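Researcher: Quick test of sequence recovery. Tokens follow.
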């Protein structure tokens, strides 16, 4: 039986049935009722005179999706730890570029994968470039303490992530946050999808409650991730950058408790499902849905699962391909160092992206041999290599060489 949104119940059965369904859900033993209240949206306006507590019903769908997410994380972790470090680092770099481009595209922020890759590869020594903060913070997921423990930390992360990217006219004009109302306007429909008229005092109060919700271990962690994403985007504490900051916070929470691959596929999946994602937010704030986030949480879980499944399929294909190529490489009977040299480049080729190939200096470190020896191997196997960049030199194995290895008579 379909679990209907309250708004749908209203349109089918009328107001009296809506109220009884609302009270039944609100007071159910399987409901997580929060102390965070929203003012719903109706007729493109935020109703400041109406307050609903946010709540989530623990449906069978939510339970099954939570289990699927956790099982996928186990599969991803096993695959990750069973692969060579270079293969996984190359794969994570590829995911990172896609994720960064996607979180920008979702907000109609113009960027290219090339410029994001340049920052990721730390080229030209530029440290104050546009998107530098965005790249750095995603790159450092799990590698440094960026804890959001108090309200001031939201502004700190905002500055680290987006300080170079937000126009001065759209910077916060309060002590930490915006002071005037803000919203999301859909130009194609010619209407406001969301409005929030809170001032800075209300924003501070709401974020304090959000922090307590994050720490509430009575509610499952995955539900806290999904529900808090809605809460943060509902609040819209800044004039610009809310979407990118909100998705970064989701990625951080996914990374902290699940795995890096799941974290680095969220924005990419959202960008592929823009309408589904946007409609989920719009429905969650709707006057007739009365603060219920059950369907929103389900959709968030759907997006996380889709990203996981896509990554798992990609990784499994890469693992099979790598095995075949290594078997082909063994048939060439190369000296050990040359075999290792080509094996690392194969890992980078299969798992990574042309935009973020391993440089010769990094290759030298990985192989733990002299740069002179690496240069000699580059010269010897030059017919198999394409020079992608110089200073530092970056090479990629030619497709013809890969195809040649695959064509060898290798025992399956």
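Model:
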């Amino acid at each position: 039986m379909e679990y209907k949104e309250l708004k749908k119940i209203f349109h089918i059965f009328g107001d009296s049935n809506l109220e009884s369904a609302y009270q039944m859900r609100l007071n159910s033993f399987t409901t997580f009722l929060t102390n965070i209240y929203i003012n719903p949206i109706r007729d493109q306006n935020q109703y400041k005179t109406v307050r609903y507590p946010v709540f989530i019903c623990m449906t069978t769908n939510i339970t099954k999706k939570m289990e699927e997410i956790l099982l996928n994380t186990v599969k991803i972790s096993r695959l990750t730890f069973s692969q060579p470090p270079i293969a996984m680092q190359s794969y994570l770099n590829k995911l990172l570029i896609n994720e960064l481009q996607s979180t920008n595209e979702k907000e109609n922020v113009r960027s290219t994968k090339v410029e994001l890759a340049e920052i990721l590869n730390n080229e030209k020594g530029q440290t104050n470039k546009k998107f530098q903060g965005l790249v750095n913070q995603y790159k450092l997921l799990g590698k440094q303490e960026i804890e959001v423990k108090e309200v001031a930390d939201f502004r700190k992360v905002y500055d680290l992530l987006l300080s170079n990217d937000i126009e001065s006219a759209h910077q916060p004009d309060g002590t930490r946050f915006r002071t005037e109302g803000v919203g999301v306007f859909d130009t194609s429909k010619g209407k406001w999808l969301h409005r929030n008229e809170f001032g800075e005092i209300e924003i501070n109060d709401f974020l304090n409650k959000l922090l307590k919700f994050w720490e509430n271990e009575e509610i499952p962690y995955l539900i806290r991730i999904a529900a808090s994403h809605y809460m943060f985007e509902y609040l819209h504490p800044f004039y610009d950058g809310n979407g990118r900051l909100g998705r970064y916070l989701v990625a951080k929470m996914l990374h902290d408790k699940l795995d890096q691959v799941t974290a680095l596929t969220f924005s990419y999946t959202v960008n592929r499902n823009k309408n589904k994602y946007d409609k989920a937010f719009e429905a969650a704030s709707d006057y007739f849905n009365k603060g219920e986030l059950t369907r929103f949480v389900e959709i968030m879980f759907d997006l996380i699962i889709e990203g996981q499944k896509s990554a798992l399929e990609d990784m499994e294909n890469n693992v099979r391909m790598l095995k075949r190529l290594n078997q082909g490489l063994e048939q060439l009977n190369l000296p050990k160092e040359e075999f290792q040299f080509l094996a690392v480049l194969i890992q980078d080729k299969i798992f990574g992206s042309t935009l973020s190939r391993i440089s010769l200096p990094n290759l030298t470190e990985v192989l733990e041999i002299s740069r002179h020896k690496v240069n000699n191997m580059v010269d010897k196997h030059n017919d198999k290599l394409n020079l992608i960049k110089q200073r530092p030199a970056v090479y990629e194995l030619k497709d013809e060489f890969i195809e040649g290895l695959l064509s060898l008579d290798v025992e399956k």
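The longest strand covers residues 31-38.
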